[in-house]
Structure formats: structure tokens, C-alpha cells
Prior knowledge:
The chain is α+β, with helices and mostly antiparallel strands. Helices cover 39% and strands 30% of the residues.
Amino acid sequence: MFIGQFSHSLDDKGRLIIPSKFREELGREFVVAKAYDDCLYAYTNAEWEKFVSQYENIDERSKDERDFRRYFIGTASAVEMDRQGRFLIPSYLRDAAGIRDDVMIVGIGRKLEIWSAENWNRFNGPEQMAAIREKVYDDKNAEEHVAK
């Protein structure tokens, strides 16, 4: 399971270092794809296969289902980590997530999220977290979930 967050920077070739804590579980070869938010997902090959298998038998008559498959599967990229733990993020994926230099790698369970530091800070600020808490928990339960 991937948990925690790590700050890194892209090198001049667009490569990113995967934190050593995540390397073994992620594997030498893995998949990077666009995410719902302004970030990327990194899946192990096994998790990617599980994800893709859900969409193998979509209704081709449904534009929404075709678009969904194009968005995630059609824009994904199989990548390979080198001996130093780096991998190249394709430029079209860097552009899609606004990744230029400083990056946050966030473990969210069965996959990683890769954010530009700017997008991560905007998404992960105290005001945003308060709004999320209010949406997820009712007012009474929200107080129980506030970090002390």
C-alpha cells in the first residue's frame, strides 16, 4: 500500500525520481495516466490491469463510456524506472498535469498521485481541507475528525 508524500524535482530531461519507499512495490515497469484532478496517477501493472479490465466491454454506443476510456486508457503511458529510480514522464502528461519542476508524489493506497507542487499546494490548503471535511462528514461528526 502506498502512503505518504514526498517532494522531488524533475531533472532537465523530464525524469522524476520515485521515492525509495515506493520503488519495490511500484515495480520497474508501471503505468502513468491522467487523473481526474490536475495530477497524474501511477499504477503498478497489476493495478492497471484491474482498472482497464473494467472497461473492456463498454457499450460502444455510449459516447460517455467511449470518452472515459479514451481519457484514461488512450492517454496512459507504460514507463520504466532506471537504476537510479528515475522515469521519464512523457511531455503530454507533464503538460496535462501542469508539471514543470517541483513535484509532490502522494501515496493514496493502491496507486500514486503525481502533482505539480503548485497544484498540490492549491488543492491541499487548509481552506480546501475544511470544505472537503464539511462535504464528507455532517457538522456533528466533522468535529470528531478534526486533527488536534
